[in-house]
Amino acid sequence: AKLLADITINEDVSGSDATSQKYKWTPIGTSSKAYTGIFDGNGYTISELYIDSKVKHTGLFGYIGNNGEVKNLTIANSVITSTQNYTGAVVGESTGNVTNCHTTATTQVTGINYVGGIAGDLGGSMSLSQCSNAAEIVGGVAANQYQRYGYIGGVVGCVHSTASNAITGSYNIGTVTGLKKVGGVTGGIYNGGSVQNVYNMG
């Protein structure tokens, strides 16, 4: 699939209108039925995305599977909130590639564990490259939730990818807040994956 223009989903997700009047986005892909296609944002922007989720895997895409890919996309002026794990503006959890995706400073991403500006968790042997986050990232603050794991990152919450180029050419300039295992670019790295040519100014 390929975007052919900018898309505005709501008039104003931060406005005073009742929550029930906002269109609530349902994330694409779950752990049992992952998105395995190629989504090309074509350099366009999706704005006013509103997600208020009570299940894990939250973002524009909930779960991207092996061979799936999202690229060339910006998320702006959006509110992405989950009371569960794996939350990111672009994808909650991915075992596919994420390339040239960005968030703006007018976006907020809030979750419990595995929370990132672009992706909550990056797994498999895939990579995230040429991405940037300016959104505000908050992890582990929902009522009646115990943040057992943490992993709150500006770009990716946690890296489980085995790739030597798991995160490359990416950066964070947004604020990142969490209770434990909090990082400017990522909250944790496992399985031998590496991070190259990245920086944090959040």
How does the SSE layout of this entry go?
Layout: E1 7-8, E2 38-47, E3 50-53, E4 61-64, E5 69-76, E6 79-82, E7 87-88, E8 91-94, E9 97-103, E10 108-111, E11 115-116, E12 119-122, E13 128-129, E14 132-133, E15 136-139, E16 152-153, E17 156-159, E18 167-168, E19 171-172, E20 176-177, E21 182-183, E22 195-196, E23 199-200
Parallel strand pairs: 1-2, 2-5, 3-6, 4-8, 5-9, 6-10, 7-11, 8-12, 9-13, 10-15, 11-16, 12-17, 13-18, 14-19, 15-20, 16-21, 18-22, 19-23
Quick take:
The chain has 202 residues and is an all-beta fold.
Count of β-strands: 23
Strand order in the largest sheet: 1-2-5-9-13-18-22
**Silhouette:** globular
End-to-end C-alpha gap: 33 Å
Helical fraction equals under 10%
Determine the strand fraction and express it as a percent band.
35-45%
Q: Which residues sit in consecutive blocks of at least 5 with pLDDT less than 50?
A: none
Rg, please? 15 Å
* H/E element sequence: EEEEEEEEEEEEEEEEEEEEEEE
Give me the secondary-structure category. mainly beta
Number of helices, where a helix is a run of at least 4 consecutive DSSP H or I residues? 0
The largest sheet, given as strand count, sense and whether it forms a barrel, is: 7 strands, parallel
Mean pLDDT across every amino acid position: 93
